Amino acid sequence: MRIAFLVLFLPVALLPLSAASPSAKKAEERPEVPPPPFTDGIFPCSGCHATMEVNPKRRALTEFHDDIVLRHDEEHRWCLDCHDAKDRDSLHSASGELIPFSESYRLCGQCHGEKFRDWKAGVHGRRSGDWNGHKTYLLCAHCHNPHQPRFRPLAPKPPPRPPQRPGSTKGGSR
Amino acid sequence: MNQGPEQADGLSRRQVMAGAAGAAAAMILTSCGPKSLHEVPKDRLLSLVAEMEKTYKEKLGADIKVGTEPALPGVEFAYALDISRCVGCRRCVYACVEENNQSRDPQIHWIKVLSMEKEKGVDFAHAGAYYDPKEVPEDGHFYVPVACQQCRNAPCTKVCPTGATWTERDGIVVIDYDWCIGCRYCMAACPYGARHFNWTTPGLPTAEINKNTHYIGNRPRPSGVVEKCTFCIQRTRNGRYPACVEVCPAGARKFGNLLDPGSEIRYIIEHKRVLVLKEDLNTLPKFFYFYAT
Ligand code: SF4
Ligand code: SF4
Fold first, then answer.
1. Which domain holds residue A96?
2. Ligand 2 pocket check: which of B153, B228, B230 to mutate, most ligand atoms within 8 Å of Cβ?
3. Which ligand is located closest to the Cα atom of residue B278?
4. Choosing among B77, B84, B90, which should be mutated to test the A contact, i.e. which has the most A CBs within 10 A?
5. Where are the beta strands (DSSP E) in chain B?
6. What domain range includes position B258?
7. What number does the ligand 1 atom closest to the CA of B113 have?
8. Whose CA is nearest to atom 6 of ligand 2?
9. B175/B227 Cα distance (integer angstroms)
10. pLDDT in tens, A71-109
11. Is residue B145 within 8 Å of residue B137, measured between CB atoms?
């Protein structure tokens, strides 16, 4: 039992060492990302769409999803260019390959190749974790609303206080 | 105290001198003489930080862990900031304050985010840190956050009269708060305004102390010493990203090992337009700015 324990866990114990060696990455074809940022209760889409007939005609939606305003090449695109008409819980690429929401970066990467390349290298987008080990990425959709991808302005934190005259603050002692 | 041999205790000059020599020899032998922190042997360092932890417990009432992690072999840290992404939101400024136990009042910020005009480009004559609109980024502006540039040819360490600031093997420029005499020569020498002085005992509420510290990093400082960014030495020497990297909502901040050809930093230097601030001063910063687009 004890030996089995050792055999099982030794390679794991060695992992941090190998991670510290140069070029430990590379093999990251499927980076780790948190779950997609769905609106509460919206997924799976098939929850509603399974029983609905597909209307492939390009149109403005009025009955549902009318809150979604497309500002993303809207002259040329609409829902079914990215969302799959048959498998309602999937996206699809330009070639028709099904892409799960959890890998939506492959869909975005078709047009935004340069950003996709930078993202895979850890240069576009935020990463957290270990600089020489395990890292967490974010999906494009975590920062960019896919329907309106422009990065939204945000309120800044307070500016610094202008320098005070030395001695003007009480409470200090040397 | 200038006691001569004629003093009441009856010691002869010879005896006093012999005693002094003995004491000096004892100091050298037991290596308990004054030494700056980067020279002391490991066991002595451990006892020193144990003392620090005890003092913090007594004075601040907090169980602070003072780490002694040394530089990792084969590692030289570098930083890169994407000027085309930063939106000037200052999340990094306050994440840094909390992580590194900066004084809340009087206020010390290791990171200063400068707002610059797109028309003028990177130009310190047309930069301001006090912008305060409802939302950022502002039209016609871009932002350049500035903290210690971790210069390879650091002017600050050369002017220190006590050897209280130096460059570690992994490239981090650090300060020994016990040896800093507060002369502020280094502040005058630094061309980036990256060093800050504690005019008073830092205003740091006990409840807000980050207890995970490093002896030449974010441990609470006394009054009268200089401090600055250390690339989050308490995090990065344990493999983690600096706090500012993880908080930046624009993903503008990148960090890694300059000596690892597969690192993000190397990718940026090899593929992007990269610049350093005040290049003409030959400070050779390890903090790079780049344009991803
Ligand atoms: S948190 Fe990021 S975007 Fe915000 S000011 Fe800092 S570097 Fe710029
Ligand atoms: S930026 Fe200033 S404090 Fe930092 S290493 Fe350079 S001269 Fe020293």
1. 32-41+68-151
2. B228
3. 2
4. B90
5. 65-67, 77-82, 112-117, 127-128, 141-146, 165-167, 173-175, 196-197, 212-214, 226-227, 253-257, 273-275, 287-291
6. 1-293
7. 5
8. B151
9. 7
10. 999 999 999 999 999 999 999 999 999 999 999 999 999
11. no
E strand or H helix at A129: strand A128-129
Closest CA relative to residue B258, chosen from B279, B288, B216: B288
CA B188, B193, B198, B200 torsion: positive or negative?
positive
**Using alpha carbons only, what angle is made at residue A51 by residues A48 and A55, rounded to the nearest 5 degrees?**
90
Half-sphere exposure of B277 (CA within 13 A, CB side): 24
Amino acid at B12: S
CA distance B108 to chain A (A): 9
Whole-prediction pTM value?
0.84
- Put simply, the answer to whether B264 touches A122 (Cβ < 8 Å) is yes
- pLDDT tens-digit readout, A19-77: 444 444 444 467 889 999 998 999 999 999 999 999 999 998 998 999 999 999 999 99
CB contact under 8 A, B239 and A130: yes
Q: How confident is the model at residue A2 (pLDDT cuts 50, 70, 90)?
A: very low
C-alpha B163 – ligand 2 centre gap (Å): 15
Residue-level pLDDT at A163: 79
Name chain A contacts of B109, Cβ cutoff 8 Å. 160
Number of domains in chain A: 1
Of residues A19 and B249, more confidently modeled: B249
- Contact list, B267 vs chain A (CB under 8 Å): 121-123
- Between CA B10 and CA B13 the distance in angstroms is 10
* CA of A19 vs chain B CAs: smallest distance (Å): 10
Q: Model confidence over B19-37: pLDDT tens digits? A: 555 555 544 444 455 556 7
* Residue B198, pLDDT above cutoff 50: yes
Beta carbons of B175 and B216 less than 8 angstroms apart: yes
Number of domains composing chain B: 1
- Considering the domain boundaries, does residue A128 fall inside one? yes
CB contact under 8 A, A156 and B94: no
CATH number for B108: 3.30.70.20
Q: Does residue A22 form part of some domain?
A: no
Q: Is pLDDT of B120 > 60?
A: yes
Whether A10 shows a pLDDT value over 50: the answer reads: no
Alpha helices in chain A (DSSP H): 2-20, 46-49, 79-82, 105-111, 113-120, 140-143
